[in-house]
Task: structure prediction
Amino acid sequence: MYAGHAAVALALRWREPRLPIVPLVLACYGPDWAEVVLMAPNPRAVMAAYTHSIPGLLIGAALVTLLWRWMRRPGATLLGVGWLLHWPADLFTGRKPLIFPTPLIGLDLYKLPLADFVLEATVVAIGCAIYARGVPKRAELRRVIVILGAALIALQAAADVALGVMRNTEWEPSLASATRQSHLPRARVHGWAGLRMRFALSPSHNRREGERWQRRTDPGAS
Amino acid sequence: MSLLERLIDFIAAQYRWGLHPLKIAVALAVPVLIVYLADRRVRRLAAVVAAEEDRVRRLPRIRRR
Result:
């Protein structure tokens, strides 16, 4: 997610108006900034395992919360929450690691730029609407917030158009590891074996059932 | 080629040439800057509005009418 993280920061700001916006936005983009810093000596894909995995996210959020609390500034918890919300936001647009570098989980909407734009524009609109609740109801203030939302949406549009121009791979959403991707289309196994596969507890059990079914339907193959 | 097409071509070229940390840093800094400028403007306007409301509240009732 790109502009959506800024919208998350705007929505969180409503909870604590004394918290300066810049640290909050930086915290919402925190894993990305950490990745940029760590990218200097290592490739990006390797660093994502540290910055965007759930343990890395928890460590980053804890560090930023403790640092802000140590500085005795208001809204330390919100900074941590902003850092943690990076992962569910990225789950929609990309594919991110859970604990280890693989498997990568996510809806991968960057490969469908129009869907990504619609999602992020919606998130920006909601974030701006929540932010607007925290300021006096005056036309000139609302105008600034509308311009803010429009600027973020335009930024997202530019990124999505460039992604659309550059698109050279197919959409590959993933909600589970390769051995458990039951949501992806695959050859159906009918009858009792198929029923047992659908309720199987382990991937190896599924594999055995599939082999057994294949032997039964096509004895000449083996 | 219009300005918009040039901008899109420029962003696409950044993707095509690979994502250098500096490019990502610039891309991440842009929304931070936008939000910072807008929030600063909102806070200043809100302060003006609050000061105006405070001034009106302090006026004698007869003048307020």
Observations:
- Chain A has two domains: 3-166, 187-217.
- The first strand of chain A starts at residue 96 and ends at 97.
- The two ends of chain A are 47 Å apart (CA to CA).
- Residues 101 and 178 of chain A are 13 Å apart (CA to CA).
